[in-house]
Design a protein that fits this description.
Helices cover 45% and strands 12% of the residues. The chain is of the alpha/beta class. The longest helix has 32 residues. It is elongated.
Length: 233
């Protein structure tokens, strides 16, 4: 299938690489033709509607790639069918990923369109493919924020503290890798370790005092809220 990727950011660049095409700008739509088989709108959540409203009549299928935008946002596009190809993965433009490493959630306006985008995804190398309507996809997107975005911020705080005491950041890499590896055999709750799950209030107080000494007051608030959550569960 002839594919056009609209969007040159992280997701757009990744999809363009996977489908073997050059992405086009979502602002100018330079290079857009009306006879492609598939149009992938790979832009930020708040830009999907704007891009969709600029599209002319298209002879192919139109999909967007976001987790929190309803599929019906594309309903007004004059096209063969519409849907969603949502990559549930953290994606950076500078770090290519094989499609087999990207779980893909699909939704479509009709069964025929769904089968076409599913077949294309399989042919392109995606192996972990599931179905999720707009409501389920919103919830999955939320879990990604907790599991990835918040986790990444916690690691960034750890790196900041390591930088402060002159210890190489790489020391936490094996710890993070083992934390994730455990999820293959036990639940995250079962794998929980540390002072909060032990209700070790003495250590918790020392950590909060240290954060205060480092003038990391916002980080101390985060530490306390999450520790209280762990202790209450």
């Amino acid at each position: 299938m002839n594919t056009i990727v609209i969007g040159t950011g992280n997701v757009g660049s990744q999809f363009a690489r996977i489908f073997g095409v050059e992405p086009i700008s979502s602002r100018t739509l330079d290079g857009l033709t009306q006879n492609a088989d598939l149009y992938i709108i790979a832009v930020s959540d708040n830009a999907v509607k704007e891009v969709a409203e600029k599209l002319p009549k298209l002879n192919g299928i139109v999909v967007h790639t976001t987790g929190s935008v309803p599929m019906k946002t594309l309903k007004s596009v004059d096209c063969q069918g519409y849907g969603v190809m949502y990559p549930f993965q953290t994606i950076s433009k500078t770090r290519p990923l094989p499609p087999g490493k990207i779980p893909l959630l699909l939704e479509a306006s009709d069964p025929d369109t769904l089968e076409k985008i599913r077949t294309l995804a399989l042919q392109t190398g995606f192996t972990n493919i599931g179905l999720a309507d707009s409501e389920k996809r919103r919830k999955v997107h939320l879990t990604g924020t907790f599991a990835c975005n918040f986790t990444n911020t916690m690691i960034a705080i750890s790196q900041q503290i390591l930088d402060d005491c002159g210890i190489n950041r790489s020391i936490i890499t094996p710890l993070v890798e083992e934390t994730i590896a455990k999820l293959n055999t036990i639940s995250a709750k079962e794998a929980q370790t540390g002072p909060a799950v032990r209700k070790d209030t003495s250590t918790l107080s020392k950590h909060l005092e240290l954060l205060d000494n480092l003038k990391m007051h916002k980080e101390a608030e985060i530490y306390k809220v999450i520790s209280d959550y762990i202790m209450s569960n």
